[in-house]
Amino acid sequence: MTETKKRPSRGGRAARVQARTNPAPVYLPTLNRAVGPIDLLGPDGVEKIHNAAMTILETTGIEFRDPVALADWKRAGADVEGERVRIGRDMLMDLISTVPSTYQYHARDPQKTVDVGGAHSIFANAYGAPFVYGLDGERRPSMLEDAHNFFKLGQMSQALHVPGVLPVEPQDVPVPHRHLELVHAALTLTNKPIKGSVLSATAARDTVEMTRIVFGEEFVDQNVVVTSLLNCNTPLVWDETMLESLRVYAAANQPCLLSPFVLAGASTPASPQGGVALLIAESLAGMAYSQIVRRGAPMVLGVAIMGVSMKTGAPMMGSPEPGLMNLLVGQMARFYDVPWRSCTMWTGSKSPDLQAGFDSANTMWPVLLGGCNFIVHSAGFLEGALGVSYSKWVHDSYQLEAFHRFFSGLQEESLDALLGDVAEIGPGGHFLGTDHTRENPLLINPLQNNDSYEQWVDEGAKNADMVGRDEAQRILHNYVQPPMDADTRGALDDFVAKKRLEYQT
């Protein structure tokens, strides 16, 4: 009897179609920059800014509005007068000398662990916006569901290394246990590196405890599993809330992004050199204090630089001066041999339009050309960082893939085979069918439309906002939650439930 050959099942065909139309993400590793960095200053210029920063700390001083920090500085030998701390340059340089120049930033999935410092760069999500521009395009207060969605989008992004802990501020969650919901979501909805809460010392301690449940207490003590964002109040103030969180994370050997929030021309001098001298003094003072808490704890010199409109006083993104300042900060960070953090891909626009595009590009280029290591706000921001757009989030995420490709630089290759192709194709031919072209396709952004006008109209004449919202919905539909050991998940859930009850009473 002749054996009948079975036809492939419909399920198998459907699976193949699904794989073609919704392929699994291929995650990009740490960006190891092969382009740049740009140094604007010669040795004399670096020394000039360094001396200005040291003079600020030695003569003007900086306020630490926290009694524990003041007592710590006094014991360490600084000049403490009221809340004003004056730090000698020898003491400052000795303290920051033990900050590691690089560190490994561990993820639940070891394959998604990344490196910070040196020639390494990583991209992190938007952070802290109270509003969202939703999947319907409408602006509204942000909710916990939105935070969950941005964690899911972060997990599915090929280029975003750190989904964060506060992609938006969930207005429907009470503040006392907001950090519990966000850290729990970051640890369970993603298996990439996360950031920590700095809402309070309690929130910081809970964050550390939750990472210990997931990674193990001994592992956390010896390895970086969370990095947290702390803002200095420029000019020259570190407040109690930030310092309490800094002590928790430094004691646990977990780094912080010690970041003056700069409005150039308002909170700092309009001069790029003068503004950088001030913010360097502020960040280094926080970094030095972390080493009083725990010598050798990794830390990151942080900046968040915007300009100010001289017409309205509103923050301005994408202007040239903050770009120049970022180049200078990068050069100073290399002088001090510490990692540095900056902000990019933000805009004052209220939609993912032309202004949003050029603002975002104009903020990213100088940051990467300056050699930044930890790049925050890399996806989603609109409205001067007050809103996160689902649409812009996915547009930015695909742009990160292009930046990753560009700054990875040229690949080693032999020209002999290519010369053979040139000889074979000859005058008037084309290279579309060669093996080299098929094996080395140019990077394609799936959201960019390069079709004819007629085809664009036939397919709905969609603008950038519409295309981005459609893509966000597609990604969320195809999201797959990364697994977590049942015992670990149970212990994490129990911790959150217990703390939630504790903070409600």
A few lines on this structure:
This protein has 505 residues and is α/β, with parallel strands linked by helices. 46% of the residues lie in helices and 15% in strands.
Secondary structure elements and pairings:
Elements: H1 10-21, E1 31-32, H2 43-60, E2 62-65, H3 67-76, E3 79-81, E4 84-86, H4 89-96, E5 102-105, E6 114-117, E7 120-123, E8 131-133, E9 139-141, H5 144-156, H6 178-189, E10 194-196, H7 201-215, H8 217-222, E11 226-232, E12 237-239, H9 240-251, E13 256-264, H10 272-293, E14 300-302, E15 304-308, E16 315-316, H11 320-336, E17 340-343, H12 354-369, E18 374-376, E19 381-382, E20 387-389, H13 390-408, H14 416-425, H15 435-439, H16 453-458, H17 464-477, H18 486-504
Parallel strand pairs: 2-12, 7-18, 8-20, 10-11, 11-13, 13-14, 13-15, 14-17, 17-18
Antiparallel strand pairs: 1-7, 2-4, 3-4, 5-6, 8-9, 15-16, 19-20
Helix pairs in contact: 2-10, 4-10, 5-6, 6-7, 6-18, 7-9, 9-10, 10-11, 11-12, 13-17
Describe this structure in words.
- It is a single chain.
- The chain is α/β, with parallel strands linked by helices and 505 residues long.
- The protein has helices at residues 10-21, 43-60, 67-76, 89-96, 144-156, 178-189, 201-215, 217-222, 240-251, 272-293, 320-336, 354-369, 390-408, 416-425, 435-439, 453-458, 464-477, 486-504, and strands at residues 31-32, 62-65, 79-81, 84-86, 102-105, 114-117, 120-123, 131-133, 139-141, 194-196, 226-232, 237-239, 256-264, 300-302, 304-308, 315-316, 340-343, 374-376, 381-382, 387-389.
- The strands form four sheets. Strands 1, 7, 10, 11, 13, 14, 15, 16, 17 and 18 form a ten-stranded mixed sheet that branches. A four-stranded mixed sheet has the order 3-4-2-12.
- It is globular and about 75 Å long.
- Helices cover 46% and strands 15% of the residues.
